[in-house]
Amino acid sequence: MNDLSIRFTRRGPAASELPVLIEPDFAGEPLQTALPRLRGRIEREVRRVGGVLLRGFAVPTVEHFRQFAADFGHPLLSYEFGSTPRSAVGGGVYTSTEYPAHQHIPLHNEQAYTREWPMKIWFHCVTAAPQGGETPIADSRAIHRRMPEAIRRRFEPGVLYVRNYGDFDVPWQQVFNTGDRAEVEAYCRRAGIRWAWGEDDALRTTQLCQAIETHPVTGETVWFNQAHLFHVSNLQAEVRESLEELLGLDNLPRNTYFADGSAIPDEVFAEVRRVLDEETVSFRWEEGDVLMLDNMLAAHARAPFQGPRKVVVAMAEPHGNLHRA
After folding, report:
1. Do residues 86 and 94 make contact, with C-beta atoms less than 8 angstroms apart?
2. Per-residue pLDDT tens for 126-150?
């Protein structure tokens, strides 16, 4: 296609095509300039495979990235009912999750712990970490196929997410982008979230969400939840022990249960995490890279890193089952 020699090495299951690599026609081709030529291909490959990596294009600023994402025709979304700390960069662009560099963020589909989520998500590598810092991805259809049948059946009714906001988790004021209790309650009514206020401005929410979903365009079945991230087994052993002793099982910052409210054994999530590991695809970021995913067809993660790293994120095209019985 061109005389460029763009090196791209990925690690992952042989059957996965994630991500499809798309290169410029010439060195330094501006990504925005290339979009009219590439839009049809990008949209086809994102729908077919789940994601594309645009590498070798010129993306001079975060604003150029923002405009590229916005040019797909959907207003960029604000980060509402978040589960992790982020900072707004501006215009619908956010920093990636601001967890300490040494921490691993497991595979997940963005906001799959809610009943409304973005269908499209973009990542832009402004600064690639000198060591680590990859954004691993995985095919949510393949995850569902590989998941043991007994686990799929148990999760079909959904996942119950319980959150206790306060000193040990993201404050509810940050999660709901307001300090007004009435606004929080209005959001919860709309989203089908049960809430309860406690002492010292504490808040507890409970929401039943999907664990397995059907893609609205392709009709394919996907594993689509964050049960393994919210479950107490995701904590380091010493942290879990301390929190359980201090707060009790019912008051942990976050936890997940089967749809009927019964506890999910740790060994269930050990098997879930095994499947996720087997479907993980990883590649090294290069500065200027833009990764575009269908948020239902592809999950993403973050590897620990050393040194400076800056990856920004944009999301668009809300979809969900807020009004489903």
Report:
1. yes
2. 999 999 999 999 999 999 999 999 9
